[in-house]
Amino acid sequence: MLPATTLRFPDHSSIGAAAILVALLVSSLTSPGQTSSTSPQERTQSTDVSASTKSSEKQNKKARRGEFVLAPIPISSPALGTGIVPVVGYIFRIDREDEVSSPSVLGAAGVITNNGSRAFAVAGQLYLKRDTYHASAAFLQGNLNYNLYGIGASAGGAGFQLPLKQDGSAFVGEFLRKLKWKFFLGPRILTGHSSITRRPGGSDRVLIPSGLTLNTKLTALGFRINRDSRPNRFYPESGTFFDLTSDFFATGLGSKYSFQSYRASFSKYWGLRKNQVLAYNAYVCGTGGEPPFYGNCIYGTNNELRGYEAGRYIDRYMVATQLEYRLALPKRFGIVGFGGIGGVAPGAREFFHSTSFLPAGGGGLRFMLSKAYHVNLRADIAAGKNGHTFGMGLSEAF
Predict the structure, then answer these.
(1) Scanning 29, 144, 314, 386, which has the fewest C-beta atoms within 10 Å of its C-beta?
(2) What domains appear along the chain, each with residue ranges and CATH number?
(3) Helix runs in the chain, H state only
(4) From CA 73, how far away is CA 377, in angstroms rounded?
(5) Exposed, middle or buried: residue 180 (CB in 10 Å: 0-12, 13-18, 19+)?
(6) Omega of the bond leading into 377 within 30 degrees of 0 (cis)
(7) CA pair distance 95, 110, nearest whole angstrom
(8) 146-205 pLDDT tens trace
């Protein structure tokens, strides 16, 4: 649900919309990677500091090695209902002498809503050897109740629902190594299983998906490449972020379905006048082979875009682009305004049909929870083609 440089786990995890929970967890807990530095003047002055003062500073530095983050985040989602997402995490440095690597993160989160959805996730991101290696992993388990509208833009626009319950678990892990020009590249693995059953009610006009009531296993090998030049990942005021993931599901790996998934995201940030930021994001998704319905591109997850129920619009291809203006106000408050457009389609040509466009726009409030890292509590209201959504979270949407 939250952005960037964090793990962006794919929408097609083996329990479908549960990827929202993992994205929220890791996005909420990842530190912006600020490092301490000392100016030449400060280094000169430091020669006059007494031995006792130096000893005290070392003790304080050790005491500040890490900190806990606790956040009971309310959730009000058209897909999952109203409830709470409790988040707990620990941000720390593996090597206290390594001020190049971003802080590592360990965390856990859960979700409890009034529609019966229950899930939990544990995750971690480790930054090693002066920012040479990034290792990440997450595990989630639970059951989610949501509505399926069918495949394609026309099915989503018709509004006929098929209530489903999806139980299962999933694991995703990756190991990236730094290359030249700030690029990171490495392998990833995704595996999990799920069982989908129909809940009472709904419309018979929605095509019942194959594999209903069956315990389905999905396993994929893939790779990830990204590049991040933002000085602060929680609240970027400059720089860019590029991220590309590719997952290959195959029966030879034990997966019930064989298909391929590709996702790419690009964000750019401009610092305008004091306390003002303009942020841009573009997102592209593509699927090949024969995926289950939740293996396709799902509109409205990972804040691409806000204003839509996650899962209402599903298809093989998806594009989305959005622009957001951010203004920091006194007393830790802030406001944002955003707008964008996107769509889903079975092929590239269908994107040019006017009926496929899915615009959205809205605004939100911010409250700075941490001055040191500029971590904001986010509350956004957005309107789309079929209604509006309200969402809260930590950090910015992208």
Answers:
(1) 386
(2) 16-35+54-394 (2.40.160.50)
(3) 19-29, 40-45, 51-63, 153-158
(4) 9
(5) exposed
(6) no
(7) 29
(8) 888 988 888 888 888 889 999 999 999 999 999 999 999 999 999 999 999 998 888 888
Q: Are 9 and 32 in contact (CB under 8 A)?
A: no
The tokens for 138 are 């997450």
Q: Which residue type occupies 248? A: F
What does the block give as tokens for 392?
């809260």
By CB atoms closer than 10 A (0-12, 13-18, 19+), residue 251 is: exposed
Q: What does residue 153 show for φ and ψ, rounded to 5 degrees?
A: -65, -35
Q: 132: which 2 tokens? A: 């040479």
pLDDT digits (tens, 9 = 90+) for 307-366: 998 889 999 999 999 999 999 999 999 999 999 999 999 886 776 666 678 999 999 999
Question: For the whole model, what pTM was predicted?
Answer: 0.81
CA distance 56 to 62: 10
Q: Which residue has the tokens 């893939």?
A: 222
Residues 299-311: pLDDT tens digits? 988 788 899 988 8
Q: Is 97 helix (H, G, I), strand (E, B) or coil?
A: coil
Query: What are the tokens at 255?
Result: 């997966």
